[in-house]
Amino acid sequence: MASTQVMRMLRDNPDGVAVRVHGTNVDADAPALAACDVSEVEPRHVGDAEYAAFALDFCRRHAIDVLVPPRRLPALAGRAADFAALGTRLMCSPPAAVATLTSKTRTYEAARAAGVPVPPWRAVRDAAGFRAAVGELTADGERVCLKPAGEFSAFGFRVLDDRPLRIRDLLAAPVPAVSVRAVAEALERAAEAGESVPEFLVMPYLDGPEVSVDCLSAPGGTPLAVVPRTKQGRYRLLLDDPEAIGIARAVVGHFGLAYLSNVQLRHRAGRPVLLEVNPRPSAGIFQTAFTGLNLPWAAVRLLVRGEPGVLPEPRLGGRVSVTESAVQVGPAAPALTGLDGGLTSIGGTPRVPAQAAVAFHEEAAAPATG
């Protein structure tokens, strides 16, 4: 699981600092919790204020030094001062950037205004607008897709396909496809029932493979390290791609992103265009370790000390394989490395060394769209 790999990078940090990892999840059986030193179940389906209150209380009770939230950023982004009052540093981009980037519509509008290449898109909420958008974007024979405009990860993504089903389709890998008619009818039924319909985007189904760019940046948006990667079958390629790096640097600087973020690109007519921007670390950031960088630890050090330490020039152009490993899930989490042995627990005893307690708050991950 990606979270456990990031924990390993933090524990195996180049400074040799003993790290104690606290984690929460809405699912008590989440495998990542077994790799944490301390774990707790977080509230499910609650508003931003209640979630922020939970996070603040968690950090207070456990004397957390650094909080790295991969989810619920709108609930936490504006609360840095509240966490600081508890002695906790919050790793998060500015609230304005988070508010923009948690909406794909606002992201595309802002990126286009900044000169960043974006695909054509149409925002829709009803059947009439949906049909009109599909008609416009398919006029030149382009294949289109549908996705929620908000933060739903890969949930809600569909390729729009009205072609008759063929035998070779049944024998191929499954694709999240749906007909235009079925979507329009679903929107009509929702309108008739008075259901709340979120904003959806209709846009071209962009050519793969997706390029995911992991970024480390200083507060204010100054890029410090940028690593593009993509998939090639069962392998991951660490790309030496100046065009992708240039777009990512422009995005990070324009939105003023801080610490860890992720820029995703795909190709249209052979040129990279922006797919989305995540003002948080990506699930696959652990793959960047093979470039010689430890981005998660550099971000923690940047947050705590104001500088990321020595950042070697990343070794790009390599190919790596992502493999699975088994971890026993039981009452006590097995240690991932020898660095965390012999630490005292927090709560009534001296806290761990400064800058060493890192908490991860995460929700169940959605499957990737590819």
Short précis:
With about 375 residues, the chain is α/β, with parallel strands linked by helices. It is built from 12 helices and 16 strands.
Secondary-structure map:
Blueprint: H1 2-11, E1 20-25, H2 31-34, E2 38-41, H3 48-62, E3 66-68, H4 73-76, H5 80-85, E4 89-90, H6 95-101, H7 104-113, E5 122-124, H8 127-137, E6 144-148, E7 158-160, H9 167-171, E8 177-178, H10 180-193, E9 200-204, E10 207-218, E11 222-232, E12 235-238, H11 242-255, E13 259-268, E14 271-278, H12 295-305, E15 319-321, E16 357-362
Parallel strand pairs: 1-2, 1-16, 3-4, 3-16, 7-8
Antiparallel strand pairs: 5-9, 6-7, 6-9, 10-11, 10-13, 11-12, 12-15, 13-14
Helix pairs in contact: 8-10
